[in-house]
Structures are given as C-alpha cells and as structure tokens.
Structure prediction request, 283 residues.
Amino acid sequence: MEIIKSYKSMQQYADRIRSKQETIALVPTMGFFHKGHLSLMKKAKEVSNCLVVSLFVNPTQFAPDEDFDSYPRDTERDLALAEKESVNVMFMPEREELYSSEFQTYVNLEKLPNHLCGLSRPTFFRGVATVVSKLFNIIKPHYAIFGQKDFQQLAIIRQMVKDLNFDIEIIGVPTFRESDGLAMSSRNKYLDSNQRKTALCLFQSLEKAFALVQAGETDPARIIAKATSLIESHAKTSIDYIKICDPMTIEDVVTIKKSALMALAVNVGKTRLIDNRILEIKT
Ligand code: AMP
Prediction:
C-alpha cells in the first residue's frame, strides 16, 4: 500500500494507472474507520483493481462551533485496517495541500442542500461538494463509493456529477449497522454507555415507521408523531429533524405513495447522529 500526501504525486499515480487502461475506485473518508468504511472498500475492490482511499478531515465542511478539532482520529489503526482491505493507495493530504491561503472556489448546489442536514448545517454541503470535486480532479477515479447512511450527501454527489459532467460512476452502499441496529459512525465514539443505549432510538423509530407503512399507514405526519414520541421518551435527546421525503429531491411528501425516504437527525447528549431508511408500501 502506498501512502501519498501530495496532490501532484497523486495525480501522476492516477495518470499511470489510467495509461495502463486500468480503472480506479475511490472511497472518500474522514478516517477513524469502522466496518461501514470497510464495506465501501470491499465494494470498491469488486469494481476495480486499483483502490484509492482518501483520508482527510475536511475543514470546510465544519462550522466554527462544530467538532473539527475533536473529530476522532487514529491514523495508525486506519492504515492497518486499510492494508487488510488491500487498499492500493491511501491519499492523505495535509490541510495546506488542498486549501491554500488564497483558496476561494467552492461548489454550491441550489436545491438539494436546502433540506434535512443542510438547514442546521448551512455550509456543510458546500464543503462536501467542494472537497469531493477536488478529490475527483486529483484522483480521476472511474468509480466513487459512498454510504447510503449519508443519504442526502449521496444525492448531492450524484447531482453534482451530473451537473458538472464528471465522468465517474457513483455507487451507493447500504448502511452497515451494529448487531442491535445502530448505524456505525465515527461519532459513536463520543457516546457513553447510557447514550449508546439511547442512540438505538433512531433505528427503532425507523423500524417502527417501516412497520406502520407496511401495515397501510401513508400519512407522514402520523408516522413522524410516533417517531417523535419514541425519541422524546429518552432523556437527553433533542430532535434536529424527522422527515419523510422524496429520495430524489429530498422534498417532503404529503402522502406516501409506493415508497419514501425517512431521515432523522437527533442529538444524544452533545453527539449529533443521523440515520435513514426507505419506507415501502406492501404490494
Ligand atoms: P466519513 O468518514 O464519516 O465521512 O464517511 C466516509 C464514507 O463512509 C461516506 O460515504 C459515508 O456515507 C460512509 N459511511 C459512514 N458510515 C457508514 C455506515 N455505517 N455504513 C456504510 N457506509 C458508511
């Protein structure tokens, strides 16, 4: 496994792979790997021989009051896990390598960020779209793999690739969960043992919503009310949003027809957790 820190060396490496008619799959990450990250790497290896994993805690997607400085980091452990997944290149740029002091070009989407996480984190998706565009230009992948856990992010990347004519196939991978259902996340590390138990209420409310829709419920308001009371029955939770929306536009739906995306963000103590699930009407 090669570790590359400079963007020029990364571009040259990518050029060499491409000149051999081989394909590159990219898994962008902020590190502190868990099995969700590893499942993305496994998927990447299925589609391509050359797997590049980027590890970069991207400052432009954190607001000043968010956890950029304290975001969990463990590079040695990440490198050992990546090696086991037969990663070919770990691209680990320094902050200054991607953002010079004169940096001033950002990628903004007009509509998709105006929902869900974009409302409470107004500059988040601008940071994500910008850094992913930069990674695409540097690594020149044929495939890029993202988790469905960050559903809105995946929708935004797909739209951006279409709008900006990136010649890259975007692949979404299902959410990898702990055995009790909690979605794996680097931020789960912040949870103490009581909060870890409480955190399960996100998954439980999605499962309950799924069962309600399977039983014939089509009114998002009634489903959201039930999820709200389930979550609020736990101490130290505060709901950022619970929404039932169109998976393509991320706009609220008035009635569930066939299927819809339920997405939620909940603070458990100070830790902000997100999860989602497609709700489907029984046919
Ligand atoms: P992060 O390091 O949190 O920025 O995540 C890097 C990639 O891993 C993103 O595409 C995430 O959607 C994906 N990811 C995070 N958690 C999971 C999970 N539990 N299952 C599958 N993919 C995930």
Residues 193-214 form the longest helix (22 residues). Residues 186-278 form a domain with the Pantoate--beta-alanine Ligase; Chain: A,domain 2 fold (CATH 3.30.1300.10). The chain has two domains: 2-173, 186-278. The mean pLDDT is 98.
